[in-house]
């Protein structure tokens, strides 16, 4: 397959006739009308939210009077009897930022629900979840206040206005109408979001939203359509990994919600408070100490000197960011990410237990006594804050087998050594430099003071708020040392974790290339199968070893180079097991460059397919250039004969040194003219010519000057070559016109003389749509855009037009993928696969060419 231009002249620039371009306003109006026609309720709700916000106040939100009348909550409904407020409260927002989020949520969440289960059901789900979500929550608050429960009493005076309550409820109801992948995403992400808000923020609106989501699941269950079962499902391990990843992400993001929301009523709000830099007052410390007579350290004098600056901020946030990295690795099956999450969560649990007095403090006797039953709720919250990260660590430890992707040999050991080494080195650096700068601290420090202070430099500031500050830096130099060592350590951990997660160990055995060539000789692998032998492919084999799949992993997308190579009887099983392997590694499998015969396999699996190009095929047995439509081909052949140019069928090893040098020169001239790199992936270059099985057809004149070169990849069956596929095409700038037509015609005539050659493929012009086919869905439009973007430089469409001169048969080529949600990632991965070495300078060159 080749995407190179046939002519040497620069590609024609695509120009846009501004007179024919519709105005942006008209286009926006048309798009809005189309959206309103398809999602009338979602659009209507968004308009109502906007109008209400404009009337009640966009910037600062509704006035107190409006909140008292239309907002919901315990005091509103129970004390004042505003029974309508659970429904009216969902039409208001707190401020302008929330309005933007609400508008987006209305169009996305409600629009999604409306598309899946229709307008009528969406309206019903909207009303039911609004009323029951708040209603059940208010009932729970009423019982809590009556029983003297602390949270219910603490939030009884809060008034809630929240448009997201029915949005989440409707989206969860609609999940029953989605496919298996979307259904899991909606539920995991939806429930994780509402749960983290309840646990870390804990306002009444958070409770109502979570209850609305649960009610939505119940409503959707009553309406659920018949279950559609396909023959391929993502593995249960993937489901578990996704859930554990969401949980770890919740533990990481939750404290940030507590820090920035200002609401600290949630069950896990203490964890968030620990990772903030707010120092409590002495009165708050005394109140906390009334929970139990833990140690006298609990009520010692608290230094209210706030430790600020970039260093403490980084030491507080980088552990959370490292947990986010671990969560991402968990979703991709990385064993290292599992151990990283276990270590950090265990550390958080131990630090929290130490801070809350559940573990002995340094130098203090440890005695736990219940002081008063009236503080049992706070004690429970603190205990839960310790047990949750510990439980997360234990759950991940119990599911280690579900994370099979190991790092490359030595990478994890190197990470541990670098982490421990940097900790020791930074600690020694702090002690040594601190001793030299001992007079730069107040009071002046001793060596023993520095040794005792070392652990605190690496612990988030929030965990140290009950610790008496022994000394503080007195100038910028000492401050940089005091705050910098901890930040430097956590930067090392964070960057090291990212590098370690990027080093998954996946690769073929040493004999894999030979095994692949044996399979190719026996089974062929289709007209594009020989591309699987190229350098850069990863190879995967079935357990039987009878089927191989070549693929590239680009940004988490595993793109196959062509069809599986193996017996047809094992095709469906090989595809399913390869998809499972990708799933275990956290990759999205994409089968690329497939022919029509593979459609039944992927249709049975419920995958999505789309055409990505057309292969042009010639039948040598009926090759004939007589007739008017062959005039261009005959003229090219005659022109070559008059110029004394002949066709030479050979291999790279048979070339003379002069011929090999000329081919390299021709290729280099082409690359320099483009000012962009050669395309890769399914497009061969100079290196691929050197394979002994690849044949070359050269255009050579009497002076042994090479005018042009084409390469032909073999296709086998039962050990015999049954066809050839065109790959490499280059010619000199000053070569005779029609030299490429001449070489292809001469190749076809040569193949006609061999009875065993069944086909001659002119390969595929990648990303060039079939004639008359207009882009349909999102996937089609995505690849249409990619092909259109690269067309001015690489000329895919002009290449396809060139191949039409040979009156070929057209065979559509498609790709198959399990999840349309990943299409943007697939498009980017394809672009990177074709242009793996694209530099920033070349990107600028490409964009400059597109703009002209």
UniProtKB/TrEMBL annotation:
Keyword Membrane: yes
This protein's GO CC annotations: plasma membrane
Protein species of origin: Cryobacterium flavum
SUPFAM superfamilies: Rhomboid-like (SSF144091)
PANTHER family per record: PHOSPHATIDYLGLYCEROL LYSYLTRANSFERASE (PTHR34697:SF2)
Residue ranges of every copy of the Phosphatidylglycerol lysyltransferase C-terminal domain listed in the record: 518-817
One GO MF term attached to the UniProt entry: aminoacyltransferase activity
TM spans (from-to): 41-63, 83-110, 122-143, 163-179, 186-201, 207-223, 243-267, 310-330, 337-358, 378-403, 415-437, 480-501
An example Gene Ontology biological process: phospholipid homeostasis
Biological classification of the source: Bacteria, Bacillati, Actinomycetota, Actinomycetes, Micrococcales
Keyword entries, A-Z: Cell membrane, Membrane, Transmembrane, Transmembrane helix
Keyword Transmembrane found: yes
Designated name of the protein: DUF2156 domain-containing protein
Its membrane topology: Multi-pass membrane protein
Superkingdom assignment: Bacteria
Compartment(s) of residence: Cell membrane
InterPro entries to which the protein is assigned, alphabetical: LPG_synthase_C (IPR024320), PG_lysyltransferase (IPR051211), Rhomboid-like_sf (IPR035952)
């Amino acid at each position: 397959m080749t995407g190179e231009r046939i002519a040497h002249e620069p590609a024609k620039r695509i120009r846009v006739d501004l007179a024919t371009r519709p105005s942006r306003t008209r286009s926006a109006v048309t798009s809005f009308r189309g959206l309103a026609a398809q999602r009338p309720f979602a659009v209507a709700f968004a308009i109502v939210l906007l109008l209400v916000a404009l009337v009640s106040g966009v910037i600062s939100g509704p006035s107190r009077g409006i909140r008292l009348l239309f907002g919901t909550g315990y005091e509103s409904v129970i004390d004042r009897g505003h029974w309508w407020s659970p429904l009216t409260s969902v039409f208001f927002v707190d401020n302008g930022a929330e309005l933007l989020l609400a508008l987006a949520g209305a169009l996305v969440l409600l629009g999604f629900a409306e598309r899946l289960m229709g307008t009528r059901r969406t309206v019903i789900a909207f009303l039911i979840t609004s009323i029951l979500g708040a209603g059940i929550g208010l009932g729970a608050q009423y019982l809590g206040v009556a029983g003297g429960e602390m949270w219910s009493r603490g939030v009884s005076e809060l008034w809630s206005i929240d448009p997201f309550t029915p949005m989440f409820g409707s989206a969860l109801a609609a999940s029953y109408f989605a496919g298996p992948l979307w259904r899991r995403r909606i539920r995991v992400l939806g429930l994780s979001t509402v749960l983290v808000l309840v646990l870390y923020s804990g306002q009444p609106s958070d409770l109502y939203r979570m209850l609305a989501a649960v009610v939505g699941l119940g409503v959707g269950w009553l309406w659920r359509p018949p279950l559609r079962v396909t023959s391929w499902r993502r593995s249960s391990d993937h489901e578990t990994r996704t859930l554990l990843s969401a949980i770890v992400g919740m533990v990481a993001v939750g404290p940030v919600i507590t820090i920035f929301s200002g609401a600290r009523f949630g069950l896990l709000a203490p964890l968030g408070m620990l990772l903030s830099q707010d120092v409590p007052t002495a009165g708050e410390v005394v109140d906390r100490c009334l929970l139990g007579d833990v140690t006298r350290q609990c009520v010692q004098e608290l230094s209210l000197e706030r430790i600020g600056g970039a260093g403490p901020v980084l030491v507080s946030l980088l552990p959370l960011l490292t947990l986010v990295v671990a969560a991402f690795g968990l979703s991709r099956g990385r064993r290292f990410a599992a151990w990283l999450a276990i270590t950090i969560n265990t550390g958080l649990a131990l630090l929290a237990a130490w801070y809350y007095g559940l573990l002995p403090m340094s130098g203090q006797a440890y005695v736990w006594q219940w002081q008063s039953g009236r503080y049992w709720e706070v004690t429970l919250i603190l205990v839960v804050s310790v047990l949750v990260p510990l439980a997360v660590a234990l759950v991940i430890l119990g599911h280690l087998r579900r994370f099979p992707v190991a790092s490359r040999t030595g990478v994890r050991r190197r990470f541990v050594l670098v982490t421990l080494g940097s900790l020791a080195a930074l600690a020694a650096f702090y002690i040594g430099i601190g001793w030299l700068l001992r007079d730069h601290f107040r009071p002046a420090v001793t060596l023993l003071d520095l040794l005792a202070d070392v652990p605190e430099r690496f612990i988030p500031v929030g965990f140290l708020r009950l610790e008496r500050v022994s000394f503080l830096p007195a100038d910028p130099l000492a401050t940089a040392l005091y705050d910098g060592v901890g930040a430097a350590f956590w930067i090392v951990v964070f960057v090291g974790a990212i590098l370690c997660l990027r080093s998954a160990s996946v690769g073929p055995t040493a004999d894999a290339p030979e095994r692949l060539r044996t399979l190719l000789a026996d089974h062929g692998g289709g007209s594009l199968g020989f591309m699987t032998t190229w350098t850069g492919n990863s190879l995967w084999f079935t357990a039987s070893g009878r089927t191989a799949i070549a693929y590239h992993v680009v940004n988490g997308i595993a793109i196959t180079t062509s069809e599986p190579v193996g017996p047809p009887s094992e095709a469906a099983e090989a595809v399913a097991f390869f998809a499972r392997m990708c799933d275990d590694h956290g990759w999205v499998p994409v089968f690329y460059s497939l022919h029509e015969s593979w459609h039944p396999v992927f249709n049975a699996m419920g995958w999505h397919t789309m055409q990505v190009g057309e292969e042009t095929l010639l039948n040598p047995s009926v090759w004939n250039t007589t007739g008017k439509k062959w005039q261009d081909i005959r003229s090219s052949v005659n022109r070559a004969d008059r110029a004394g140019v002949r066709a030479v069928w050979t291999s790279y090893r048979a070339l003379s040194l002069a011929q090999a040098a000329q081919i390299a020169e021709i290729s280099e001239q082409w690359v320099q003219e483009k000012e962009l790199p050669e395309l890769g992936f399914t497009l061969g270059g100079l290196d691929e010519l050197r394979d002994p099985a690849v044949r070359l057809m050269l255009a050579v004149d009497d002076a042994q000057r090479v005018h042009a070169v084409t390469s032909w990849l073999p296709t086998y069956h039962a050990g015999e070559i049954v066809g050839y596929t065109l790959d490499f095409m280059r010619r000199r700038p000053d070569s005779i016109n029609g030299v490429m037509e001449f070489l292809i015609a001469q190749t076809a005539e040569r193949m006609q003389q061999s009875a065993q050659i069944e086909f001659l493929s002119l390969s595929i012009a990648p990303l060039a749509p079939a004639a008359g086919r207009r882009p349909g869905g999102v996937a089609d439009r995505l690849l249409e855009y990619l092909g259109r973007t690269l067309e001015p430089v690489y000329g895919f469409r002009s290449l396809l037009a060139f191949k039409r001169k040979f009156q070929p048969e057209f065979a559509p080529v498609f790709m198959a993928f399990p999840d349309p949600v990943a299409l943007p990632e697939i498009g980017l991965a394809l672009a990177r696969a074709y242009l793996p070495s694209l530099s920033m300078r070349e990107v600028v060159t490409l964009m400059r060419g597109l703009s002209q």
